[in-house]
Amino acid sequence: MSETDINILLDKDRLENIQKLGRKVFIRAVNDKNNTKLFDSISECITYLNSISPANKTTLYRYIKSKKPYNGYICQWESEETTPIVDKGIKVNVTNIISGITMTYSSLRKAALSFAPEYITTGPTIKTFAENGKLFKEKYKITIIYE
């Protein structure tokens, strides 16, 4: 077989596998267990999620695989709907020790983004400060909320 013939066979096989899986996407709001939606394709789901906040297919695929919340929704393939949906998001409290104001964020990433544009940081950095108990930028106490 030529390389072209092999590529044609592989493309055909991929298409058949995708069609067998019935790539309908089922989503459920994290905060509202009754707010569920079913989309016929990942593109339709992305269109809906983009109406809430920016979303893209690659990231959604990763979140479906990891079963983590994405833009406030837990997403999974319709064929996996029978498995329990687990919210693996890590909630975080950020307390400004000078003003005494505490903000709660639904994920490490959102907590990290809350410091922009004054400070540029990441979720893993926020997690490290929460775990070692040190103050972030000398004035923010970060704690992970265990539920």
Overview of this protein structure:
This protein is an alpha+beta fold and 147 residues long. The chain folds into two domains: 22-80, no CATH class; 91-145, no CATH class. Helices cover 37% and strands 22% of the residues. The protein starts with a helix and ends with a strand.
Task: Offer a few descriptive terms.
about 35% helix; three-stranded antiparallel sheet; elongated; 5 helices; four-stranded antiparallel sheet; about 20% strand; about 150 residues; alpha+beta
Query: How large, in whole angstroms, is the Cα Rg?
Result: 20 Å
Overall average pLDDT: 80
Number of strands: 7
The total number of structural domains is: 2
How many strands, which pairing sense, and closed or not: the largest β-sheet? 4 strands, antiparallel
Task: Count the DSSP helices.
Answer: 5
> Which descriptor suits the 3D outline?
elongated
Q: Numbering strands along the chain, what is their spatial order in the largest sheet?
A: 2-1-4-3
Helix-strand makeup class: alpha+beta
- Strand percent estimate: 15-25%
Helical amount? 25-40%
Could you spell the SSE succession in H and E letters? HEEHHEEEEHHE
Low-confidence stretches: 81-85
Termini separation: 57 Å
